[in-house]
Amino acid sequence: MTVPTLSVRTTVLTDALVSEIREVVALGHTPELTAYLVGERLRPYLARAELLTEQQQEGNPDSYRQHVLHAEPDGSFSVVALVWLPGQQTSIHDHVSWCVTGVHQGVESESRYRLVPAGDGARLTATEDVVNPEGSVCGFAPPGDIHRVRNACTATAISIHVYGADVVRLGSSIRRVYQLPD
Length: 182
Prior knowledge:
The protein is α+β, with helices and mostly antiparallel strands. The protein is 17% helix and 40% strand.
C-alpha cells in the first residue's frame, strides 16, 4: 500500500472535475447514487492528456504510486491518480467510503470478492474477474466493495479514483485488507 501525498499543482481540467464532483457530493444522495453520479461526471475527463501533470503520471518501481489531486477541505471527498507499472497490484481490500474508479490510460484487471458465511465466521470467495479498459468507470459503496486491482499489461496504467473521504487525513482509502483462504 502506498501512502498518499497531496500534489500541490493541479490542471485546469482537474479543477473542473473537482467542481463537478463537489456539486454531486453536495446533493447528499445515498453512497450508491453518489458513486454512480460521480462516475458519470468522471467519464468525460478520462484519456485527456491535459488532466494530469507529468509529475502526476510518474510511477514507482516498488509499488503502484498514489498522487492525491484534491482533498476537499470538509473531508467529503478526495481525487487520486494511481499509476501502475506492469505487474503492480493492490492487496485484496475494501474501502472506508463510496469510491469511483476510471481508467485514464491503459488497462486494469480487477478481481472482485465477497464474504460468505462459513462455520463461526466468514470466508472470502472470488465472484468475478473484470478487465477495465481505458475510459471505463466503475463505482462501489460498502459493503460489497472487496476487490484487488492490478496492471496485467506491459505498459503503464493510470486510473483516477474518487473517494467519499479525505485520504490525506486518513492515510488511505482502505478500510480492511483480506487474505484468501489457504
